[in-house]
Each structure stands twice: as C-alpha cells, then as structure tokens.
Specification:
Structural class of chain B: mainly alpha
Oligomer: heterodimer
Low-confidence stretches of chain B: 1-13
Low-confidence stretches of chain A: 200-207
Strand order of the largest sheet of chain A: 2-1-3
Structural class of chain A: mainly alpha
Strand content of chain B: 5-15%
Largest sheet of chain A: 3 strands, antiparallel
Number of strands of chain A: 3
C-alpha cells in the first residue's frame, strides 16, 4: 500500500467513527458534517503536497476524538431543536445529553425529573380519585409519634388511622398544581438550556 | 474588526492554572463574536476561518469546537452555507453571514466596545502603577 493509500484509509476510519457517533442526526446532516470534515482534513494534511499519514494523524488529532466531536454536534443540535420547539420531550432529551457532559447539566436533569415526577403524581392522584374515592388523595398517616404526608393513588386499603386531608379537593388542586408543575419544570429546562448552552459543550471538550 | 477578534489576551506560556482557566472562559465567550467578525467581509470556509482567527488575534482555537459552533450558528440562522467545487480538487463548504447574522454581529460588537471600555476604566489605576509596588 502506498503512503497516500494509508493516509486515505486513516481518514476513512476516522470519518466512519464520526458517522457512527452522529447516527442520531438526520442522514443528510450527517453527510454534510462528514464531508466538511473530510475537506478540512484533506486540505490540512495535503498542505505540503501529497497526503502523508503523519500529516493526517496530526490533522485528526487536532480535531479531537470522533465521539467528543459528535457529542458537541449532538448537544448543539438537540438544544437548538429543543429551544425552537419548546417540546418538553426534546428538552428532556437535550438535558439527558447535557447531563452526561457536565455537572450543571446533571443537576438540571435531576431537578427536572423530580419536577415531572411530582407533576405526574399529582395529576394521577386527581384522576384516580373518582375511581378510588375512599383511598386516593393526600393522606396524613400516623407514624410513631410523627405523621407522614403521602400522596396516594388509591391502590390498596385505607391506611390505618390516616386522615384524608383534602377530600374531593384533591381533584381540582391536584390538576392545577400538577399541570402548573409540569409547565414550571418545562420552563426551567428551557431557561437552563438557554443560560448554560454556550458554556457547557465546549467545556466538555476541554477537559 | 481586528480589535474585536483580539479581545483575547495573547496566550502566555507560564500562566498559573486559575488564570489559564479564566482565559479559556474568555476565549470561549468571544469565539462566536470572533467568527461572525471574520465573516463580515465575505464568505470563508472552515479552515480559512480557523486561520483568520489564529493569525488575526493569536486566538488559539481548538479546531474541534469551531465546526460544531459553525453548525449551530447556521441552525440559528446567523450563517448560511454552500458547497463550492473549487480549484482545490475537493469541495469546500463556505459560510457567510445572513442578514440576522449581520445584525447580531453589530449588536455584539457594540456591547463589546462599551463593555471593554468600562473594564479598561477599572483596570487603568493598577495597570499604570509601576510593577513590584502592587499591594499583596
């Protein structure tokens, strides 16, 4: 194999790894990115004439590992889409990716998950009240000398000594609070992405 | 435009780590503006953008961060791109500013000018002080 072939093979291997790491993006966008980087590597490595394997190695090393590079593209892409669509699902996906890159992202993701969980629990409780009129609701249950506050979906029996705090009020209150929490959590996610997106992905590559 | 790009201090080989970290943050914060700035006078492709950034400003840019950033600026509608089959023997992807990219560049440049002027004001007293006399 000639030097040029070896060099070309190195480029193909790198781009193949990059393509694999980018597979979550639309195919058209992936080939656009891959071709752009091919053009970059070829031009940089062939600056002194023919493609030389050592020059390809150094051009590739300057770009960084394919998975890190792909991670930047994917995080940016998800964040742009999440901000444009404001869809809670996209925001959450974007947060998952971000959480894998930075500590701040991890905390935002954790708080978002707690927020959505609470919202879901409140709405479920409100909706299940008509089906389990005697057991679903916000209960205060004695626990030794203390009380424990518990949001119950109504599966199982009436807790011993417990008090149904809200009664039927759980339906309107649960729905309003649940939906409120949902939107607050979604807004919090969007706000955090907008606030931190400029710093986090590049940080990740620097580490 | 070169004053915009040179917002980043020249890299010094022996800076302590805290300063080093701070420099990275400053560079990163300026990168978007620097890219919009080098594209002000016409279209350029990725490697040209990188070279302009390095020549014009000693702005040391990790190459792996510039291409995703270009991609994002394009997704945000600040840049447009086109493939050009040139004399290089391989196609190149050129970027240029869109109308909203120009507006953004002007806004960022205005902010930068007023910001750096007021910061310079704060720095003036101890930058003028003779070295070695600063308080500990």
């Amino acid at each position: 194999m000639t030097e040029v072939n070896v060099a070309q093979k190195k480029i193909e291997e790198y781009l193949q790894e990059l393509r694999a790491a980018l597979r979550a993006l639309p195919a058209e966008q992936v080939s656009d990115i891959v071709e752009e980087l091919r053009s970059h590597i070829v031009e940089k490595a062939a600056a002194g004439g023919d493609l030389a394997p050592a020059a390809v190695d150094s051009a590739i090393a300057d770009l960084g590992r394919p998975e890190d590079l792909a991670s930047l593209y994917l995080t940016d892409d998800l964040q742009v889409r999440a901000l444009a669509s404001r869809s809670p699902l996209l925001v959450l996906r974007s947060l998952f990716r971000w959480a894998s890159l930075s500590f701040a992202g991890f905390w935002v993701l954790t708080s978002s998950l707690v927020g959505y969980f609470l919202s879901g629990a409140l709405v479920c409780c409100a909706l299940l009240r008509p089906i389990h009129p005697r057991t679903a609701g916000l209960w205060m249950i004695p626990n030794g000398t203390d009380y424990e506050i518990s949001l119950r979906l109504g599966f199982g029996s009436v807790p011993a000594g417990g008090k149904d705090v809200l009664g039927w009020w759980i339906v309107p209150i649960g729905l309003v609070l649940g939906i409120g929490f949902f939107f607050l959590t979604a807004l919090f996610g969007l706000w955090s992405i907008r606030r931190l997106r400029r710093t986090s992905p590049i940080d990740a590559l620097r580490k | 435009m070169s004053y915009i790009v040179s917002c980043v201090p020249m890299a010094v080989a022996t800076v302590p780590e805290a300063i080093d970290k701070w420099e990275v943050q400053v560079r990163k914060g300026c990168l978007e503006l620097a890219i919009l700035a080098v594209l002000w006078s016409g279209r350029l492709y990725g490697l040209e953008i990188l070279r302009r950034l390095e020549e014009g400003s000693a702005l040391i840019v990790p190459e792996g961060t510039v291409y995703p950033l270009l991609n994002r600026l394009k997704a945000e509608g600040l840049l447009a791109s086109e493939w050009v089959e040139g004399d290089a023997g391989h196609p190149r992807k050129y970027y240029k500013l869109t109308a909203s990219g120009r507006r953004r560049a002007v806004q960022m440049a205005e902010f930068w000018s007023s910001f750096s002027a007021s910061l310079d004001g704060l720095l003036a007293p101890f930058r003028l002080a003779p070295r070695g006399k600063e308080e500990r």
